[in-house]
């Protein structure tokens, strides 16, 4: 069999079109959704992500600012900038691009962001709200994955879901969202013993480990929905996911490609979160 391709780029475009009415309503009230992204250092991948986010906002007529800081910026300088942005009443979203240089504590930085402007959904109060089933901001990548499953009319309630990867950014919130919708969820990681025994049970398989092509077709249940969150650049310069697409697409019922799958959805859900933040002012 050959899997149906879940086109994240097309779905992201549809969501952006659907947001136009909400944006127009906000503007009629004198509110223009505004995001500020802080980029510390010169990581090439981070720069690409930040530019994509910025361009998406600008194309829709929203406010977007990128603050670039050198890699040797002190932690206190960064925290002071965040505190300054917290006080800006015309700013609805603050995002600090990860990863940060090693001398800066990521948790301290995230916890300094005003939870009401934490459109990445990483602040401990937003993580806690998600855990109790009443999220204020849902982390953008898991949020985008849920929208992709919804677009394919995937039945989540009662499904066996396996999430490979247990990060605070993707794996843990992903598991919580699937559980909230009634799935039976197993969380694995790259060190899980006999990983294939778990992945072969999955009706819905989400892979987010940052390890290129670690999940192959023989590790997938026939007909499963496979969501590949990974994005890795191979020695040949081509982008690859955490799932070996060639073999997996012959077994899965539906699968996301890399690129063009989860990536565009992550950016558009950041847009959704920022608009929701602005709407709360009404």
UniProtKB/TrEMBL annotation:
GO terms for biological process: L-histidine biosynthetic process; methionine biosynthetic process; purine nucleotide biosynthetic process; tetrahydrofolate interconversion. NADP(+) binds at residues 165-167, 231. Residues 139-280 form the Tetrahydrofolate dehydrogenase/cyclohydrolase NAD(P)-binding domain. InterPro entries: Aminoacid_DH-like_N_sf (IPR046346), NAD(P)-bd_dom_sf (IPR036291), THF_DH/CycHdrlase (IPR000672), THF_DH/CycHdrlase_cat_dom (IPR020630), THF_DH/CycHdrlase_CS (IPR020867), THF_DH/CycHdrlase_NAD-bd_dom (IPR020631). Homodimer. Pfam families: THF_DHG_CYH, THF_DHG_CYH_C. The keyword Amino-acid biosynthesis applies. It comes from Pelistega europaea. Pathway: One-carbon metabolism; tetrahydrofolate interconversion. This is Bifunctional protein FolD. Keywords: Amino-acid biosynthesis, Histidine biosynthesis, Hydrolase, Methionine biosynthesis, Multifunctional enzyme, NADP, One-carbon metabolism, Oxidoreductase, Purine biosynthesis. Catalyzes the oxidation of 5,10-methylenetetrahydrofolate to 5,10-methenyltetrahydrofolate and then the hydrolysis of 5,10-methenyltetrahydrofolate to 10-formyltetrahydrofolate.
